[in-house]
Amino acid sequence: MEEMRNIVRRLLGAMGFTKVTIARNGEEAWSLIQAHGYDLVLCDWNMPKMSGRELLETVRRHEKYATMPFVMITGENATDQVKSAIAGGVTDFIIKPFTAALLEHRIRTVLDLPPVPTP
């Protein structure tokens, strides 16, 4: 959903992550990954044209991207979906609704970045 993509983009910008590319669907995301390569994929489970699970499978099948951090974001918390994502090689899983602090913590963890110092 466009609104959620914009919210995540703003959150990432506020965290200092300024090189952010947004895809409207899984097929577009896969094309962008192949064209540019990225340090991290944040992906919704439910997307048109190619689901987040299908994108995860596609990414993991390619040696070049097999270890790229991949974080699945979803409103679905069904155990079978979590197990499916883990079996597919997801790096982390975030359940909606989530806070900016949780998102930042998870991103910093999967990218092995130091935590933001607290004032």
TrEMBL record:
Domain Response regulatory residues, every copy: 1-111
One Gene Ontology term from the biological process aspect of the record: phosphorelay signal transduction system
Pfam family, one: Response_reg
Sites of 4-aspartylphosphate modification: 44
SMART domains for this protein: REC (SM00448)
Alphabetic keyword roster: Phosphoprotein
Protein name, UniProt field: Response regulator
Gene3D superfamilies: 3.40.50.2300
Species of origin: Rhodoferax saidenbachensis
Domain of life (superkingdom): Bacteria
